[in-house]
Specification:
The chain is α+β, with helices and mostly antiparallel strands and 273 residues long. It has 4 helices and 15 strands. It has helices at residues 13-26, 34-47, 51-70, 161-167, and strands at residues 75-79, 124-129, 132-142, 151-156, 175-176, 183-185, 189-193, 198-201, 205-208, 216-221, 225-230, 236-239, 244-248, 257-262, 267-272. The strands form 3 sheets. It has a 6-stranded antiparallel sheet with strand order 10-11-12-13-14-15, with no helix packed on it. Strands 5-6-7-8-9 form a 5-stranded antiparallel sheet, with no helix packed on it. A 4-stranded antiparallel sheet has the order 1-4-3-2, with no helix packed on it. The chain starts with 12 loop residues before the first helix and ends with a strand.
Length: 273
């Protein structure tokens, strides 16, 4: 055990800042998982935070961490190392480059190590993480002419996520399958979106939603109100109005009538549109 059991302590700025620092460290890879959140909360309990105050402390730490990254860490960079190990521009003993903070870099090149060249500005920095390809940055510029020692500076996209999401079209990931604008979703099926926010689903009928992230969708249906739909669990759905879970039988229902399993009553029922 790294931490000894201590007496319960009050929430103070020091504990919140410690929690914020742990959250920031967990976000270094641009992905903050539920497992990491659980580990941080367990750590704060071991330090001495009372269980009934843990969520309040954690939420305050989240705010501090969010504010700290809004004006810092907006750049990414990599250098072009040579086989002779003599061009490590991001090493410990090199000077500061433009707006980059100090850091460390190995002098030995990676296999197939490359640099960027004139005309690459705006190109993506892509990495495979959690079984999916993710874009982490876009090329801004290089410090030389793409020879050994060149440093490529990139803009970190996570710092501009709110602006990016505001500019994204609705249903950004779904495939357009014809000239009429019908979309095909791997998990949600076929539907036709309209500029008003209304959508017509081939099996579920009319609903209203304007999602910028189509992995988790809040949708309004006239007969059931607001429903939460998610790629990971659909056709299970959560009803905000009823505070209840439903399962919709897509094989037997249609655009005029749904067959639903109601988890509150543990029974099947119909819902007419």
């Amino acid at each position: 055990m790294f931490f000894k059991k201590k007496e319960k302590v009050d929430i103070n700025s020091n504990l919140i800042e410690i929690c914020a620092l742990l959250i920031h460290a967990a976000k270094i890879d641009e992905h903050f998982s539920e497992k990491e959140e659980k580990i941080i909360k367990q750590t704060m309990l071991k330090i001495g935070v009372e269980n009934d105050r843990l969520d309040k402390l954690f939420n305050e730490a989240i705010k501090i961490e969010d504010n700290s990254v809004s004006s810092n860490g907006g750049l990414l960079a990599f250098d072009f190392d040579s086989p002779s190990n003599g061009h490590n521009q991001l090493g410990h003993n090199t000077g500061k480059i433009d707006y980059l903070t100090t850091g460390s870099s190995e002098s030995s090149p990676l296999n197939f190590e490359v640099s960027t060249a004139e005309g690459d500005s705006g190109g993506p920095l892509i990495a495979f993480q959690d079984n999916i390809w993710r874009i982490f940055g876009t090329v801004s510029y290089g410090t030389s002419d793409s020879t050994y020692g060149d440093v490529t500076i990139l803009t970190r996209l996570s710092n501009h996520l709110e602006w990016i999401q505001d500019k994204l079209p609705v249903w950004p990931s779904e495939k357009i399958i014809n000239d009429q604008g019908w979309r095909e979703s791997e998990w949600f099926g076929y539907f036709l979106p309209f500029s008003t926010g209304w959508n017509f689903h081939s099996q579920l009928g009319w609903f209203w939603s304007i999602p910028k992230n189509d992995n988790d969708v809040w949708a309004y249906f006239n007969h059931l109100g607001w429903l939460w739909l998610s790629r990971s669990i659909f056709p299970f759905m959560y009803s905000y109005n009823e505070k209840n879970w439903y399962y919709v039988d897509l094989a037997n229902g249609d655009q005029t009538r749904w067959f639903l399993f109601d988890f509150k009553t543990s029974s099947w029922k119909t819902a007419d549109l």
